[in-house]
Design goal:
14 helices
Length: 306
């Protein structure tokens, strides 16, 4: 089956074709109810400000696996490099999060087809220190799992602990982060316990060398911005993102962090959460919704999405 034609996930099915026509209406109703439950919970927990204060930290987690790290730092796709086109990369990455979590089937399929064109060019060379391929599903599962981890971490630290039922709903919705790429639905974590076991093993596998580490520290310092702006916001941005990293990853990146930093970071997130909760959804989720709309307009106009 061609990449773009593969079903995105069980939530996108109209009905289970093996269940018999008499069951179709019940299956459709159950699928709609599940999706409504996911969207309602995401609307209560999601805050767009997280992409500003935690985005590069999540990239650091993704690139912590050497195959992903070198796939990015050695990439020959200049149009997608954050160091050369930071605002375009912000638009496409944040728009992807919006489409994956909140978008419809048509939007997700169009985005996956667009990103496939970029990923086909990302392969290791004989000179690469590790072998990688952007279509490797295990690597894509790790990337999607990092995004899911960051989502749950932000929800929890800004709005309090999730119940077991809430975490299960968010995990179900999180499958879309992977299936909007190339991760089959059956590869996604079945329960929160499955995810956390996978996560601990994944963090243990992180190995950041100086080349990838230098790239990530520059990303968190906002080195890609014009010098005056980068110098003004860089130190704060580095500190904000450092607070979203597990301690072993901070140590590999050579970032200082102590209990006082942790207390300040926790207080800041709690305050932001209290401020954001009363806001209307369209304000809370900005800029994710704006970037999502931008990609949808580009899709309808026949312009490249990435």
């Amino acid at each position: 089956m061609p990449d773009a034609a593969r079903p995105l996930g069980s939530h996108d099915l109209v009905a289970d074709p093996t269940a018999g026509e008499e069951s179709a209406s019940f299956i459709r109703a159950a699928q709609k109810a599940e999706r409504a439950e996911e969207l309602a919970l995401l609307r209560r927990k999601m805050d767009g400000i997280v992409v500003f204060i935690a985005g590069p930290a999540n990239v650091a987690l993704q690139l912590g696996w050497p195959e992903v790290g070198y796939g990015v730092v050695e990439s020959r796709v200049d149009s997608g490099k954050v160091t050369k086109h930071p605002f375009k990369r912000f638009r496409t990455t944040v728009g992807y999060l919006g489409i994956a979590l909140l978008g419809n089937h048509t939007q997700r399929l169009a985005y996956r087809e667009a990103i496939n064109g970029q990923h086909r060019q990302v392969r290791s060379t004989p000179e690469s220190p590790v072998k990688y391929n952007a279509f490797n599903r295990d690597l894509q599962l790790w990337v999607a799992s990092c995004i899911y981890y960051g989502t749950v971490d932000a929800f929890t630290r800004m709005h309090g602990p999730l119940s077991r039922e809430e975490e299960a709903v968010i995990l179900r919705a999180g499958a879309r982060i992977g299936t909007t790429l190339q991760v089959p639905q059956e590869m996604w974590h079945k329960t929160p316990e499955d995810f956390w076991a996978y996560w601990e093993e994944g963090v243990d596998r992180i190995q950041i060398d100086e080349r990838v580490g230098g790239y990530l520290r520059g990303l968190m310092r906002m080195d890609m911005l014009p010098a005056p702006l980068g110098r003004a916001v860089g130190p704060l941005h580095l500190w904000l993102n450092a607070g979203f990293l597990p301690d072993p990853v901070r140590q590999q990146l050579g970032l200082d962090w102590d209990e006082r930093d942790q207390r300040r970071h926790d207080r800041m997130l709690a305050v932001i959460g209290r401020i954001s909760r009363p806001l209307p959804h369209f304000l809370r989720v900005f800029p994710m919704n704006a970037m999502m709309w931008n990609l949808e307009i580009r899709r309808r106009l026949g312009r490249p999405m990435v």
